[in-house]
Structure formats: C-alpha cells, structure tokens
Amino acid sequence: MNRSAADILWEVASVLARDAADVSRAAGRPPPNLPPLLFFTDPRRTPRPWETAARLPAGSGVVFRSFGAADARETGLRLREATRRRDGLLLVGLDPDLAEAVEADGVHLPERALGQAAARPSWRITGAVHSAEALARAESLDAAVLSPVFVAGGASADRPPLDVGGFSELVRAATVPVYALGGIEAANARALIGSGACGLAGVSAIQAAFGPD
C-alpha cells in the first residue's frame, strides 16, 4: 500500500462526498447514500482485486467487472467477503445473474445498457456515462460514473479528457450524483474539490495506492 497516495485519494473522496451531501440537504433532498470511493476491477490491470478490496477504507465500494472470465464467480465471492468485512458496497458489471450468485448489492451498467436500470428497482445501480446526452439518460440510476476527467488508459484511452471545467459543467446539469473517473491519481485528485462530484472512482490508481506492495 502506498500510504501517501492512499491518504490523498481517500481524503479527496471524503471531501467530495461531504460536499455532495451538503448540497443535497440545502436543496431539501436526502443526502446520497453512496461510497466516497469506487474501485473498478479489471482482469488485466487488477488480477487479484480482492487483495485491494480488503485494504480499502471502510465504506468504500467495488465494481467487479469480470468480462466473462472463467473464474468470475470465485472472484466475485472473494470480493463479497472482502467488502462485507469493510462494510463496503459490491456492484457487478452488467451481469445480473452473477450479481445474484455472489449476493452483490447491485450492478454497474455500461453506457450502452443504461436503459436496463429500471429493471431492478431494489438494487443499487450505477452506470457509465461519457457525454451530456448519456448523462441525461441516467436519471434512473443511483449514480453516474462520468469519464474521462483526465487523460486515461483502458477503455477511455481513445476519448478526449473532459478536464475539470468540462466535468464540472456536466455535473451541474446532472439529475443524479456523479462520480469522477479517468486518469485520477494522487497528484491531480485535489483539483476535483469543488467540482460537484460525489466521489472518486478508479482502476490503476486505486490498485497502486491501496493494493499489496
């Protein structure tokens, strides 16, 4: 674990979550009951995600994306155990059957599948968005995950970054809480304070900060 980076990411995520709660209360709405930090797994970049999940601050969340891996159920059960020990949220990417099998708290939907949000009203549901148009279709979600804020790798590598100004503008128009994702690390995370985000999400940066040495 990189203690310095971990402390910064959790500090910023917690500030964002508190600010989002304050805005909701001021508007007469209940504050969003969401984790400040979301760890997105990836079979290639996070090969043993349960080890990182076990080191996340209490109350964090994990989005398990198996991408059809043969050991998806085994990995999902390990993540369920780790998140329960940390009083954390577990969402499964797109696959409701896998989510039920590992007793997850809900699902995370890719942008192309946002229309499925209403099908599971008892679940916690987040969704990926990359534009104002997609964010407008996210009203049935518990939260949207907007990316990429900064230059990012993975699936967002070919997308131009929103930068903090563009991200903040989209968040102001959103009807649901919005997480910041994409290229976020300890060196730039504090720039998001005041952006309106409800928390931070990440893959490699969270793995590097909280994962085993």
Task: Give your account of this protein's structure.
The chain is an alpha/beta fold. Helix content is 34%, strand content 16%. It is built from 7 helices and 8 strands; from the N terminus they run H-E-H-E-H-E-H-E-E-H-E-H-E-E-H. An 8-stranded parallel beta barrel has the order 1-2-3-4-5-6-7-8. Strand 5 (124-129), helix 5 and strand 6 (143-146) form a beta-alpha-beta unit. The radius of gyration is 16 Å and the shape is globular. The termini are close together.
Task: Based on Cα principal axes, name the global outline.
Answer: globular
**Which range does the strand content fall in?**
15-25%
The residue fraction in helices comes out at: 25-40%
Helix/strand order: HEHEHEHEEHEHEEH
